[in-house]
Structure prediction request, 397 residues.
Amino acid sequence: MASATTSGAPARSGRTGSSAWTVVLCWITVLLEGYDLVVLGAIIPTLLKTHHLGMTAADATTIATLSLVGVAIGAVCVGPLADRLGRRRLLIGSVVLFSVFTIVVPLATSVWMFAALRLIAGLGLGACMPVSLTMMAEHMPAGRRARASTLTMTGYHTGAVITSLLALQVTDDWEILFYLLGVVGLVVAAVQWFRLPESEAFVRAKRDGEQRVPFTELLKPAYLRAGIGIWVASFMGLLLVYGLNTWLPKLMNDAGYPVPTAVTQLLVLNIGGVVGLVLGGFVADRRGIKGTTLVWFAVSVLMLACLSIKMESDLMLNVVVFFTGVFVFSAMVLVYAYVTAYYPASVRSTALGSASGVGHPWGFYFFAAVAVLGFLAVLTLPRTAADAEVKAVGPAA
Prediction:
């Protein structure tokens, strides 16, 4: 009996060690993604102020858009690959991809090269989040899936906070932010190669012959209703998260606040995001994921409406921005928590990839539709006031 106990102890210890590495490395990966996706928003005011590469506001918008296009493509494509080839190798490859192309961003010699590098880095970034969330969800018991998702996503906002703090320090030396991320990312990938175990749920699915899952599986009646709701909710949540993180400093700066104050609001927003994720995961596991997500989105509506009001007090502004972060960011992540709880292991990564990626292209279609409406509105305008007067009176006799 003693022998059996002794022989079993190392096995339990080994599993515990592997579990700890899974939690830590997935969390750090999402931290790096949060750092990267926020870094562009933090430096846009500086890039425009210094006219880096002759960059204009329109160029900055193009770069931000292409970054998200890369994220969308990476997120959609990695899910089926991770369900077929494994979570571990896809995660490591994704970290290496975005790290390498992030390092070379400051070396870009034109705006379009800058944008292309951000697009390719986005491919790796988009793949990191769904795979990390999948591995964490499969690591946790079913009753703690919401906390698994929200805990992992605290890494995203921690990374955003780090970016904001560093951006306040480096000011015009923004290149340091990219070099630092790229080097740290490569170090993390090396540690993952030696320490990150494969998901046990994936290993079981592969052993049972369930790992070949096409994206069309999500369109079957069993998943279609949930899938449509998830895609729409994910799009709305992602539009809020990426929009706020990318453009809040610029909007604050345009409103008359100096760049340091604008970047500080980004810091406050993401501190609220971390608090909201911890709170949201705890409440969702106790009260139900769907109901909690509904409440979180409803409160987000109120907080975003409050942001439209001119704040005379800096304290009041900070409070509103903080609570906006609390509810807006965790509402989107609770949608992911629902995905990890609803879908089986054989299709989970594919579902998460679609949830975090499918929304992005529809976001661009939405903005394109807005642009079309603007085009049509301008089309109805008369060329000059004289032309309008002639049409009103009619042609001369």
The chain is about 85% helix and 0% strand. The longest helix spans residues 2-50. Residues 1-13, 361-365 have pLDDT under 50 and may be disordered.
